[in-house]
Amino acid sequence: MALKSWLSIAADCHFSLANIPFGIISTRTRPTPRPAIAIGDYALDLDQFSTHNGFAALSVIQPHQHVFSDTTLNAFAGLGRPMHTAVRKYLQSVFLETTPFPDVLKDNTSVQEACLIPLKDVKNHVPMQIGDYTDFYAGLNHAFTVGELFRGASNALQPNYKHLPVGYHGRASSIVVSGTPVRRPLGQILEDPTAEIKKPILSACRKLDIELELGAFICKNNNMGEPIPIDEAPDYIFGVVLLNDWSARDIQAWEYVPLGPFTAKNFASSISPWVVLSDALEPYRTSGLDNDVEVLDYLKEKSKNNVYDIKLEVELRSKWLHN
């Protein structure tokens, strides 16, 4: 049953009461970035909301309200999943049609004017300070398709694929928020890969590829060298964003042997500005495809519902398509 809000929210809106994603915004009148949630066609400025005693009915967050004045979500994420759950549920209750706290926002026009900002009037920022970035294959079809590009169908999957998570480290400093212009990278390419003598040229990428992926933000630390048991891993995930892993395939084909991609991958990665918390995804947990290879014990999960049923699609818009 869909949750109903006193705030007008379109039925097909991504930012419904069932979502409550967190992000970092700024405005023309207040250019300092600060935390917010997206709800309907608005952003709720959590810094202003906190200043106007919006969290007065949630005692557990009161000693930590300073996190809503930070310029990233790192401090809030660092409070841990129980706190994320409490804050998200409280904000849901504030926007419920039958809210138990009408004085907080529903019947308080002055606080609405101070805290609710039309999304069209906000600037979005990368939501967290990113110290490291690792990119993994997330599915068999993805791994096979990319492998086929470089090695052909008969050798598309490497022997290790079904035994362990396969990934590489990307460049954290080139992660940008969606909508940021991306410059086509310059690098070495082989104009004729079949030539007996392999002689590259320096060229702008001619095979720029997009990849629709899901990015996860980690919110807890572990001591260096101490592994995290796989069944505890969900407690370390703050939430997810959409991610475009831009790829220069012609540059990648020449440079990635034997150590992996470099210029072909690290020139830009775009992420959506709103972080969907793990709790919002719980209703979509399901079982994944069976792996026909038995993994080692440390990778075996107790729960069979260890993937999310999330349907994603890409719409390509180009000025050349409309000429």
Average pLDDT, rounded to a whole number, is 93
CATH architecture of the largest domain: Alpha-Beta Complex
CATH topology of the largest domain: Fumarylacetoacetate hydrolase, domain 2
What is the 3D form? Answer: globular
Which structural class do the helices and strands define? Answer: alpha+beta
Specify the number of helices.
Answer: 8
Low-confidence stretches: none
**What is the CATH C-level name of the largest domain?**
Alpha Beta
Span between termini: 45 Å
Strand order of the largest sheet: 4-3-2-1-5
| DSSP strand count | 18
Largest sheet: 5 strands, antiparallel
Give the radius of gyration: 22 Å
Sketch the topology as an H/E string, one letter per element: EEEHHHHEEEHEEEEEEEEHHEEHEE
- Helicity level: 10-25%
Which homologous superfamily in CATH is the superfamily of the largest domain? Fumarylacetoacetase-like, C-terminal domain
Descriptive overview:
The protein contains 8 helices and 18 strands. It has helices at 46-51, 74-77, 81-95, 109-115, 140-151, 249-255, 263-266, 278-281, and strands at residues 22-26, 34-39, 42-45, 116-118, 123-125, 134-136, 167-169, 175-177, 186-189, 201-204, 208-209, 212-218, 237-244, 247-248, 269-271, 276-277, 285-286, 307-308. The protein has a 5-stranded antiparallel beta sheet with strand order 4-3-2-1-5. Strands 8, 12, 13, 15 and 16 form a 5-stranded mixed beta sheet that branches. Strand 2 (34-39) and strand 3 form a beta hairpin. It is globular, with a radius of gyration of 22 Å. The mean pLDDT is 93.
